[in-house]
Amino acid sequence: MKRYLIFTDLDGTLLDHNNYSFGNNEKMISTIINNKNEIIFNTSKTFSECKKLLKELKLSNMPFSAENGAVLYFPKIRFNKIKNSSSFDIYWKLRIAKLSSKNWYQFLKQKQKKYNFLIAQDLSSKILKKYTNLDDTSKMLNREASQIILWEDSLVNLKKFKNALKSEKQGVLIQGSRFMQVSSVCNKRIAKKLISHAYDYQFYGTYSKNTIALGDSKNDIDMLNSASYPCLIKNRSGYFPKLRSNKKNIIKSSKFAPDGWRQVLYKLNKTLDNKIF
Fold this sequence. Notes:
By secondary structure, this protein is of the alpha/beta class. Helix content is 33%, strand content 19%. The chain is built from nine helices and 13 strands. The protein has helices spanning 25-34, 47-56, 101-111, 125-132, 138-141, 155-169, 188-202, 221-225, 259-271; strands at 5-8, 38-41, 64-66, 71-75, 86-88, 91-95, 117-119, 146-151, 171-175, 180-184, 212-215, 229-232, 251-252. Strands 2-1-11-12-13 form a five-stranded parallel sheet. Strands 3-4-6-5 form a four-stranded antiparallel sheet, covered by helices on one side. A four-stranded antiparallel sheet has the order 7-8-10-9, with helices on one face. 40% of the residues are buried.
């Protein structure tokens, strides 16, 4: 029986949007993993943030994607060296985004002369806590291939900024639930595709090509559209990510995260011939 690759966003999906609690999901995660399925973080969070959570949830032997697909990590204990990857900690690290966080910081400092926005890296921990509810923001700021900003200018200037980003640095602006991420071209769909390919190459035939994805925000749409079973978590803003009009097998939660994460997987499991748990 083939098992599933389950790609999940974190904030507002697996974790409570406000306090970052994973609630009662730990028990379900354990059951899913014991049934030989994989749970793969595909998140805007950084390596440092992911590593802590992976340890708490006993998922450290799973690959994951950080900074909205800018960097991928494959645990050496299970994966052979990934093409174009480098050794980093207990992982093979594959950076998809071309430019570093330092490059982007320099670019943004120049653009602040023309546009009105804040760079998270420049803000005090006290100010950042107002936006994030985090006591320690150091892990959030420990970025490899991106920077995050708070836009305080007009929509007209936002469009101009996006055009400058693309034409001058081949960069993209990714809208998250709290911040906008500036990076080289990357997204969660690309990350999902590359991780799925690595599984297929190294564990051929073990995992179903019918992937599962869970998300709640705009930056999850590409990932959700590329999944066989897209699971939408009710958003605190009162909307679900809008997927392709012809997209099938969509499961929606009536609850917010973290309970909504568990709810959609229960619903999905009832429809599958090969059960997740």
